Amino acid sequence: MKKQTALLSWSAEFADALRGRRVLVTGATGFIGHALCDALVALGADVHALARSPAPQIDGINRWTVDVRDAARLEAACTAIEPQYVFHLAAQVSARQEIEQVRPMLEHNLLGTVNLLLGLVSERWKCARVVLAGSAEEPTAEPRRAVVASPYTAAKAAASLYARLFQRVYHLPLVVVRPMLTYGPRQESTKLIPYTILKLLRGEAPALSSGSRLCDFVFVSDVVRGLLRAALEPGLEGQTLDLGSGLPRSIRAAVQRIAQLMGSAVPVQFGAIPDRLAERPLLADLQTTRRLLQWEPQWTLEQGLEETIAWYAAREGVAWRRKCA
Asked: What is the pTM of this model?
């Protein structure tokens, strides 16, 4: 399978760089966190998976049930683990714009990040690298003109600012990595790609927005490779790097491609729900990433979609034949 090929590729690319190293992954139960833990175990790392709920059942990881909002327990876990590498993926993710989202996003995504950064600033041990997962939704333009479209975006943008503070002033060797619209097996079923696939597998019409928004789609295995490179590439401290294809596609075009690959005649209901206010196109700055990270995606959108469709079809017990090797 292509997953096995990816693991072999990672082993060749990263060799023994992480073998035996103590690695802390927050948000290990999440979509990207689970995939990252898989890769780290395959690379021989001493993996410590931290999450609010019990961490995924992956052989070879040490599980820590800690909420990043609990500063004391989080600092105690950091002290006990003394990680050499940290991947901070813990976040509450939602593009919803209701005012009720403000406090939970603040507590999970900003205060949780600050708690971790405080827990990692220690004179007793030194991390080689902290990789913080930012958000593609964060504004990159001049702050006074930046469009912040949700409480999630505001909290993640503020967390990235604090990360830069800890890197510059408190000398934490930190890199911010911003995955674009990531998709792949095991993703939460409410997200765009799995939602569309599952609806079509069940013969139901997906109800979507207009689909006009341009997004940069990136497969989860490529994101994992980028995170690993961000941990190991020298001289990246203080950088913010995008992981994406650099090739925007509209949501409508991506959804139509899914339907084509699945051979589905079920109509997609574009415009059934309103577009969210103030959303902007998502596009990775791949030129900077290539130059500093020596990374670019290995999976095309079609290859990633086929792998994802196959995984959900198998989970649903639906026979589906992939159209390319």
From this structure: 0.91
